[in-house]
Hints:
Blueprint: H1 20-26, E1 51-52, E2 62-66, H2 68-80, E3 84-88, E4 93-97, E5 100-101, E6 106-110, E7 114-118, E8 147-152, E9 155-160, E10 164-166, H3 169-172, H4 174-186, H5 193-201, H6 212-216, E11 231-236, E12 239-249, E13 256-259, E14 262-272, E15 283-286, E16 289-299, E17 305-308, E18 321-331, E19 337-339, E20 347-358, E21 362-367, E22 375-387, E23 391-396, E24 419-431, E25 437-439, E26 446-458, E27 461-464, E28 466-471, E29 474-477, E30 483-485, E31 489-492
Parallel strand pairs: 1-3, 2-4, 3-6, 4-7, 5-8, 6-9, 7-10, 8-11, 9-12, 10-12, 11-13, 12-14, 13-15, 14-16, 15-17, 16-18, 17-19, 18-20, 19-21, 20-22, 21-23, 22-24, 23-25, 24-26, 25-27, 26-28, 26-29, 27-30, 28-31
Amino acid sequence: MSTMYSPHRPLRRVLAGLAGAALTAALAPVAALPASAAPGTTPSPTTSTTTCLPSSWGALGDGTHDDTVPIQRAIDDCAARGGGTVRLTGPDRTWVTGPIQLRSHITLQIDTGATLRAVDDRSRFTWGFVGYTFNQSAAGNAGVSEALISGHGVTDVAITGGGTIDGQGSQLWWTEAQQAKTDISRYKSALTFGALAVAIQADPGHPSALPASRYAALGAIPTSNGLPRPWVVEFYDAQRVSVSDATVTNCSMWCLGLRYTTDAAVTGYTVRNPSDAPNTDGVDVVSSDRVRLSRLDIATGDDDVAIKSGFPGFPTPAVPATDISVTDSTFGTGHGLSIGSEADNGVLGVHGSHLSFTGTDNGVRIKSGRDRGSDIGDIAFEHVRMTDVASPITFTDYYTGLPKPGVDSGQPVTATTPHIHDVTMRDLQATGAQKSQLIGLPEAPLQRIDLSGVLLQGTSLELRNVTGAFHGVRVQPVTGSPYVVEEGVDVTGLGAPS
């Protein structure tokens, strides 16, 4: 057992090898919160009154000129003066930039009506992957970055102002990613990009639109994560972060990533991407602590919100995701609010309340698998409304390849066996549903799943390898029985609701 991790220390002082069981014992369950509650500290990025204008360094904001250098100079100058606000003025101005790096005590203000847009040049970016440390794919090339806007090792930083950030996804990145999805679908047994390259080379009758070398360079990265691309905004090893009153659109891949970040508040945050935009997660919280997400308005092509903690076999620090809340938010198209799938270091202490889902593929989803799980628990959602959400509640330990009932007799418990436990859902109403599942593993059932005051209209509820209690639960499928009870089910209250 290595040195114990404290979620209140910055990552740079953390040693790998988290003792997950000890951390679980130290955490109390999440308590129910009233609407608009935001526990924990609120980041205060800077108290400086200094304002730094990139136009003073030659930025034009005309939608054509590359303003990367003057914007970065304004950031660096402001930081050298003790911090302040770097302002991109509007309205009707577009500031074109390559990757920029925020510094400590800096607020990036993009005015209402102004747009910060990624430069039309793929060579200025490298790709990010949840299993890689910051800019690991750049191989020491300081001239590129895995995010359009990044804050690495920073303290007291903010993005605000009411403006828009455009990641140039449709122009630069989506076509290639969609082509990769076609190859991944054709060669389903190729679980890594390296294996995908081998499969394509061995099948000359079905040539890929992308060269096999493109995949081979990604090696052991799992194909289930999608083709790696740059992200739009990323904070890594950061403390006291605020993102407020900002819109992110046309995302290259993830729109906002909080990785190994402590004390973050994201509020008044809007995401707009087409429903088929590949892997365009709205917010990804990875191995971070004390994160408050509120007043989100997200419609996108993948997870609206995703909470993760790493993928085994890669050299990122062994840090869990802990103490996270999502409140007073609205979700449209997308894959819903997801915990997982990459949860190798645990996800503990997640609370959601006053959430609305409309036309989302999933509502609340906990997804893991034998190759990527750990301790996932102390989770509570309440006051949730869903309309025409295909799968309102899905908790499953089969991220891919769900076997038919009775086929899987279990496997030995390993370090990556998922343990989903102590999940409470209260006052949840879903209409127009198609499917809902609570499915654990034979060797690791879902434990203590508590549903209270839940309405699932349009779907049955499939139960397998799960324990828990239902109180006042109404399941109203279009046809058939309310519950599909398979093996390993020990749930009280499956009869008529009280």
